[in-house]
Amino acid sequence: MNKLHFLTAGLPLQTENKGYKAGLEILKNLNLDGLEVEFVHGVKMNESNQNAVKAFSQDENTLVTCHGPYYINLNSDEQEKIDASITRIIDTANMGKQIGAYSITFHAAFYMKKSPDDVYQTVYKSMEKICTALDEAGNKIWIRPETTGKGTQWGTLEEIVKLSKEFIQVLPCVDFAHIHARNNGLNNTYDEFSKMFEFMGKELGDDIFNNFHAHIAGIEYGLKGEKNHLIFEESDMNYKDLLKVFKEYNVKGAVVCESPNIETDTKILKDYYLSL
Ligand SMILES: [Zn+2]
Questions:
Q1: Which of 28, 61, 110, 164 has the smallest number of Cβ neighbours within 10 A?
Q2: In Å, how far are 19, 53, 238, 251, 263 from 23, measured between CA atoms?
């Protein structure tokens, strides 16, 4: 990875209903660096869009990542639903490879009122199946469970880092807005961001900063964590100090902006980062 790429989550709003080709062109014209393809309602994309995204991903200046379906719970009470979740993650990984993506992310599980240790073991078993299947298929795409925004969802930074240490193909997708929301407003200062980076470097090695996948957005939250995404202007997300820490660690990889105004806040992130 040669630089920090700023990606929109989904096609820019300016695309309207003109489709992938037009949307990718708009990203280039805006001088943005890539796209996280949102397979949140299912891993489906027609062939001509696949080809358009693949061509876009092959440009050395742009990067593509994928977000897996929301309907994933590797800790469901029903084995059938766990199996379907595993399939959805593998499908996302295979589609990701097909369209030239370098990393996929997803929300891995809910606690379902079980102890975090038990849930960890359950998630671990599924991850083992996923990594084995991808290994056998020769698919080396990064598998990145995301840090989640609600206390009911498995996926603290500590849990995701721990899982990442156990699998060669697994690394975190660090959603800083989620971590901030989950902890009811904490994790939003320069010192707190620095501590997270320090922790990741210590646990996973500094090379993780050459190959990073992050989400940043404005966010609304309450006692139960994440409510919904906001634009930066209407939120308290301290993206400026966060980007200062990115700069300090010379982070390379993907920063995906999930604000509802899509390209506007992505541009704000990139411009601020370049001004540092
Ligand atoms: Zn997500």
A1: 61
A2: 6, 10, 28, 27, 11
- The pTM of the full predicted model, rounded to 2 decimals, is 0.97
**Confidence class for position 44, pLDDT limits 50, 70, 90:** very high
CA–centroid distance, 105 to ligand 1, in Å, is 7
Written as one string, the DSSP assignment of 137-153 is TT---EEEEBPPSBTTE
Find the radius of gyration of the CA atoms of the chain. 17
Domain positions in the chain:
4-275
Interval between CA 107 and ligand 1 midpoint (Å): 6
CA of 145 to the centre of ligand 1 (A): 9
Taking the centre of ligand 1 as the mean of its atom positions, its distance from the CA of residue 147, in whole angstroms, is 8
**Average pLDDT across the chain, whole number:** 97
